[in-house]
Amino acid sequence: MPSPQIDTDRIDDAVLALMFLSLHADGRVHSVWRAWKSFDWDAMSRLHEQDLILDPIGKAKSVVLTEEGRRRCEEAFQRLFTKPADVKAG
User: What pTM, to 2 d.p., does this model score?
Assistant: First the structure.
């Protein structure tokens, strides 16, 4: 059985969506959003190449999201991990 092709775009969307869970405003600087960067380094590099996050290499445990990265982060979270409004919880 041949190996399945990996869809890195979907992986990147999932990483962005999961970053939303740890998204927080940098207390020192207004309008700077950070998220924990404990994800696959290849995915983080791709997000950096797309200008969605600043360079993830460094000692900091979090990464700064660009404005577009912040927007896409929330959009991916809503699309992948929330239920439609007409679905009742429970």
Answer: 0.83
